[in-house]
Amino acid sequence: MPETVPSVDPRRWKALIFIALAQLMVVLDATIVNIALPSAQQDLGITDANRQWVITAYALAFGGLLLFGGRVADLWGRKRTFIIGLVGFAVASALGGAAANQEMLLGARALQGVFGALLAPAALSLLAVTFTEAKERAKAFGIFGAIAGGGGAVGLILGGVLTEYMNWRWTFFVNIPFAVVAATGAYLVIREPAGSRNPSRLDIPGVILATLGLVSLVYGFTRAESDGWLAGPTLGLFAAAAVLLLAFVLVEARVKAPLLPLRVLTDRNRAGVYASLGLAVIGMFGLFLFLTYYLQIVKGYTPVTTGLAFLPMIVGMVTGSTQIGARLMTRVRPRLLMAPGFSVAALGMLVLTQIDLDTSYPALILPGFLLMGLGMGTAFMPAMSLATHGVQPRDAGVASAMVNTSQQVGGAIGTALLNTIAASATTAYATSHAAGARSADLLKLQSMVHGYSTAIWWAVGILALAGVIAFTFINTGRPGAGSPAASSTEGENTVLGSSEGEGEIQVPVMAH
């Protein structure tokens, strides 16, 4: 049978606009609510004990259902899943903005997580099957990577503006126009390539085990932050997660149509991407979390000013992703972008460990933000593209879901781990310096800054480790050249990796 090359979709760049818009909505929602949370808590009478659930309800639903959402996208079709996710996310956002009590708000946040778990993998897999030519793919993933990396900082800015000049409810309502525009554009413009669905039956045992395992893991880190790492409930959740996820792997190795085909994970390049991205997100969450508190509490910035202070990092991410990553991706191996990118980001984080009570923003914080942005933007772009490298079209959704899963779990780990480290360092500093303190308020601020700095030091090491993993595991060649991964086995048929123009031609491959 003659090999055929699918026709190129003439509307692919218009499609990118709406895919990117949806991705921006999902990513910024992760941070925009953080800025609005104090106002929402006061308005709805949410207790301090229940406050964390505004964040946790979303994280559990989103993180727990991502693999299911990716598989649904492969089964139903990515365009349909994408639009359903957008409409559902808009409805959930409207409910959150109209919440009359804490129960309604928490329910809306969980519902946002459910539809976000459909939307996020559908968006990335649509991008993977739409852009198949190496140079165009580099540009498209450059834009997508910049949004994925910088969207959280955009959320801080937008959340500050909406909370300060309107009210917290608009941090939910703002999602509605995003979703309406993206869904309308997707319906009119996006064309999913024929023959890219996975018609296999849904793996129900895999769905149950993966969902419960991921929920236990994410919730375990949440409880670790509040109850301590050695508390009974924390250890119990981690043990349950380990058992459930091990059972999931055993089931997936035996069922005919697995939720997560293990071939997606056993490719060393994709495994390197998932591991390094997860670690990088831990470091990123450390930066957002502690620098937000530092700028508002220690430096006295308003929410809007705090958001604007992160703007140079967004500029750095966009520049690193579209001007460095996208331009070099077709010329050098991905690991020669990802490893240096994570290293530059670690250098930026290293600069930020020097914060003090009277630190100058232009002299220290600004250079740190710029280095962070440039490094993460340069690394994120090839990582997003490589996540679906060589994968069969029918597995594109679940492979994309693994990217989001690694980021979501990384975010949960980062929040819990670095918060715990910061709290311990703060307490230790306050205790050891209490005798010579000139005032209680000054000691409180000094202890706080010491705790932030200590946690950021840990984030430096984690980012450096992400760079080492990227350099060690990822061995594929540059697009346009032969590579070990280009011939990796993907079952009976494989799609040639980005080195040959991903997704263009399917060829039979003999098992190694």
TrEMBL record:
The chain crosses the membrane at residues 15-37, 52-70, 82-100, 106-129, 141-162, 168-190, 202-222, 228-251, 272-295, 301-324, 336-355, 361-384, 455-474. GO terms for cellular component: plasma membrane. Residues 481-500 are annotated as: Disordered. Keywords: Antibiotic resistance, Cell membrane, Membrane, Transmembrane, Transmembrane helix, Transport. Residues 485-497 have a biased composition (Polar residues). GO terms for molecular function: transmembrane transporter activity. It is found in: Cell membrane. Its main location: membrane. It is a multi-pass membrane protein. Residues 15-479 form the Major facilitator superfamily (MFS) profile domain. Pfam families: MFS_1 (PF07690). GO terms for biological process: response to antibiotic. This is MFS transporter. It comes from Streptomyces glebosus.
